[in-house]
Design a protein that fits this description.
The chain is an alpha+beta fold. The protein has helices spanning about 15-25, 50-65, 85-90, 95-110, 140-150, 180-190; strands spanning about 40-45, 70-75, 80-85, 115, 130-135, 155-160, 165-170. It has a 4-stranded antiparallel beta sheet with strand order 2-3-1-4, covered by helices on one side. The protein folds into 2 domains: about 40-115, Alpha-Beta Plaits, CATH 3.30.70; about 125-190, Alpha-Beta Plaits, CATH 3.30.70. It has 6 helices and 7 strands. A hairpin with a 4-residue loop joins β2 and β3 (about 80-85). It starts with 12 loop residues before the first helix and ends in a 9-residue tail after the last helix.
């Protein structure tokens, strides 16, 4: 009987798996916990009616909405950037439904004092800022009430109300509303305006 000198190479399966893992691409890791640009989602936020509300919003997000990681708040534009995956958080939702569902999350977590709406599409340079001096605006709750009257009006893109400053502002689309229309609604709702000088 002749024996061939064929050598057989034995590969240990554990070693093969280890080698494969070494060659596989590493999972994406964020350096310094930086968010992936692909997961950044920006929303216009309602309820940011005065600078103090920015801290309230940050606290709400960290305590009750941690799964939507807050990256930044732009108070001047009433916008916030989050790091989350809409497809994972709201499976099957189209972009309008994502905003609606995110709005519901914010409202439920904040007792309806914060919300979300689509980003402004009218360029800021086409908008006009109008200001109202208000009598008796003396607390955060009063400011919220005045703010809610104003920001819900058609043509109002953004609003503020500050008991510290004693005023409210509205960033409006002049093609849809004007100062007189907002003043009328405020007066109808019992808000007393200071007479113009």
């Amino acid at each position: 009987m002749t024996h061939s000198t064929t050598s057989m190479l034995y590969i240990n399966p554990t070693m093969l798996l280890a080698a494969a893992l070494c060659l596989a691409p590493a999972p994406a890791v964020w350096a310094d916990d930086k968010p992936s640009e692909a997961r950044l989602v920006k929303h216009q936020i309602t309820g940011l009616f005065c600078p103090e509300r920015e801290q309230d919003f940050k606290a709400l997000c960290s305590q009750k909405l941690a799964r939507f990681k807050l990256v930044s708040v732009d108070y001047a534009n009433a916008e916030a950037t989050f790091d989350y995956d809409p497809a994972k958080e709201f499976p099957g939702a189209n972009p309008a439904q994502v905003i609606e569902r995110f709005d519901n999350e914010l409202k439920n977590a904040s007792r309806h004092t914060f919300g979300a709406k689509p980003l402004r599409t009218t360029p800021k340079e086409k908008l006009k800022l109008v200001e109202f001096e208000i009598v008796g605006l003396d607390c955060k709750a009063c400011s919220l009430a005045v703010y809610e009257i104003i920001y819900r009006l058609k043509g109002v893109e953004q609003a503020t109300a500050s008991f510290k400053a004693g005023n409210a502002t509205a960033l409006i689309d002049p093609e849809q509303t004007d100062r007189a229309a907002i003043e009328l609604v405020l007066k109808e709702r019992g808000v007393k305006l200071k007479p113009a000088d």
